[in-house]
């Protein structure tokens, strides 16, 4: 259930990719880079919404806040199917993102309510494995819908899927927040919670590291259609190519869930981060030799190698950020979610907006964000990688 709730976010993003051209043509948006705002508006809404739903779930419980968010998501999805202008669509996508914030922040909060340490990392890896299945199938679903109708039907599909999740949560989700852990829902309490989170050095730095590395993912999502179709001209094979990277990340998440209990979050994630950074650096050097248009098989090979390593970062970095915040899991998850979602959306959009008909801006973005993430991680660990500070992680 938690995996599919988080998957609502990926579905709302990836299912749109095949329809961006049709949306632009229908609503009079000629600039392909501006069409990416359909994704950006959603991501910013989701980031901001998490600042609200985290404290709300700490006060009233996980389930009521989650149901409220799903109602917003369903309503926005229905309305988006009938919007007359591009500006209205962006506004509705922002609202849809606000509603979806509940699914992300509360899913992580529920897991943190029930698990800690390596146990949480294992569960988060399994959730991420299911979560990564969505990029495999979402573009194909979107393309299939476009074969039988217009892009408006994509939003009606999202409304139907989220309505099914609402019924499932209503009937089957127990409340995981203990009465003793409930916090007041007022400005002073929320500000006190922010102080607790931001004064925790490890949590804050891993939140920033998560934001930086997730910017790579958002940069890829916002540029994927242009790279695969405009640069490599693979046309109808775009959903298959996009799905292939999702398969790589799902396998990576499964491998992480099997190994994290033995080796620990720090060893796995930090080794993967170093490997990811080196891979991006080599990939960039090769890209420059080919003037930004290397053979597709070579591009995809580097992508698969890098993204297998990337798959070991998300679940472990999320867990390392949340581990010290179990007593305020809702607020902690909301700050993590807001920063990583809105921050990565804004940073990743820089990659998409700089698309120039080659793969160079994409790979430069990957390499730069990998370097920044590595620096933040080294600072978070006081220069000592691969070691838990006190007890086994």
Can you walk me through this structure?
- This protein is an all-alpha fold.
- The protein has one domain: Growth Hormone, Chain: A (Up-down Bundle).
- Helix content is 80%, strand content 0%.
- The protein contains 17 helices and no strands.
- The protein has helices at residues 2-14, 20-27, 32-35, 37-60, 62-80, 86-114, 117-131, 133-148, 152-172, 187-198, 201-231, 238-263, 265-289, 296-310, 314-322, 329-353, 360-380.
- Helix 1 (2-14) packs across helix 8.
- The radius of gyration is 20 Å and the shape is globular.
- The model has no long low-confidence stretch (mean pLDDT 86).
Largest sheet: none
| CATH superfamily label | MFS general substrate transporter like domains
What is the radius of gyration?
20 Å
> How many structural domains does the protein architecture include?
1
Structural class label: mainly alpha
- Cα distance spanning the termini: 26 Å
Report low-confidence residues grouped into runs of 5 or more: none
Mean pLDDT: 86
Shape: globular
- Beta-sheet strand percentage? under 5%
- How many beta-strand elements? 0
Helix content: over 70%
Protein name: Bcr/CflA family efflux transporter
InterPro entries: Efflux_drug-R_Bcr/CmlA, MFS, MFS_dom, MFS_trans_sf
Keywords: Cell inner membrane, Cell membrane, Membrane, Transmembrane, Transmembrane helix, Transport
Pfam families: MFS_1
